[in-house]
């Protein structure tokens, strides 16, 4: 399944990228975030791997994040793997003359189990809604300093 989401952030691209790529900021805009553990490669650089842990209700999810392309300030790509699902995310950043950043996120979800293939087929909008929610939560954190860590 492929889809794109985008959002405008009323900050210059350099500031958006500094906040977005900081591991310390994940708790402020990613619902359910528990922890990040650097596994290999130079932190924040192409090829770096991290283990991310999230809690959704009573369910804990662990993902392996790999930076697959880093051409800042224009784009950064990641791959995420978890039980039953692989996600490729291409993030593109554009800045207009007013200093507003457009963040475009292109996602591809690839189920690696029958259960996840069925779930993806049954409820594809859940993935897009979650991606957009993360983008909105990041925008709120970046522009207004609204943190989910305090919620």
Main traits of this protein?
151 residues, alpha+beta, 7-stranded antiparallel β-sheet, 7 strands
Provide the fold topology.
Blueprint: E1 2-9, H1 13-20, H2 26-29, E2 33-40, E3 49-56, E4 59-71, E5 75-82, E6 85-95, E7 101-111, H3 114-122, H4 125-144
Antiparallel strand pairs: 1-7, 2-3, 3-4, 4-5, 5-6, 6-7
Compact summary:
The chain is an alpha+beta fold and 151 residues long.
Protein model, in words:
The mean pLDDT is 95. With 151 residues, the protein is α+β, with helices and mostly antiparallel strands. The chain has helices at 13-20, 26-29, 114-122, 125-144; strands spanning 2-9, 33-40, 49-56, 59-71, 75-82, 85-95, 101-111.
Whole-number radius of gyration? 15 Å
Task: Report strand %.
Answer: 35-45%
Helical percent range?
25-40%
Helix count equals: 4
Query: What composes the largest sheet?
Result: 7 strands, antiparallel
Structural class from helices and strands? Answer: alpha+beta
Shape: globular
Q: What's the average pLDDT?
A: 95
Ranges with pLDDT <50 over ≥5 residues? none
What's the end-to-end separation, in Å? 32 Å
Q: How many E-type strands?
A: 7
Topology order in helix (H) and strand (E) letters = EHHEEEEEEHH
Q: Biggest sheet, strands in spatial order? A: 1-7-6-5-4-3-2
């Amino acid at each position: 399944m492929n889809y794109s989401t985008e959002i405008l952030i009323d900050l210059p691209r350099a500031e958006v990228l500094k906040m977005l790529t900081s591991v310390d900021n994940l708790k402020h805009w990613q619902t359910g975030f528990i922890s990040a553990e650097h596994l290999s490669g130079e932190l924040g650089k192409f090829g770096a791997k991290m283990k991310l842990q999230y809690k959704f209700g009573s369910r804990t999810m662990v993902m392996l994040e790999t930076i697959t392309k880093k051409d800042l300030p224009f784009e950064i790509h990641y791959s995420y793997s978890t039980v039953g699902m692989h996600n490729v995310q291409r993030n593109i950043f554009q800045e207009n003359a007013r200093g507003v950043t457009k963040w475009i996120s292109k996602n591809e979800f690839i189920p690696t189990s029958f259960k996840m293939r069925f779930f993806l087929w049954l409820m594809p909008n859940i993935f897009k809604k979650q991606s957009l929610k993360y983008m909105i939560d990041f925008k709120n954190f970046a522009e207004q300093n609204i943190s989910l860590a305090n919620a």
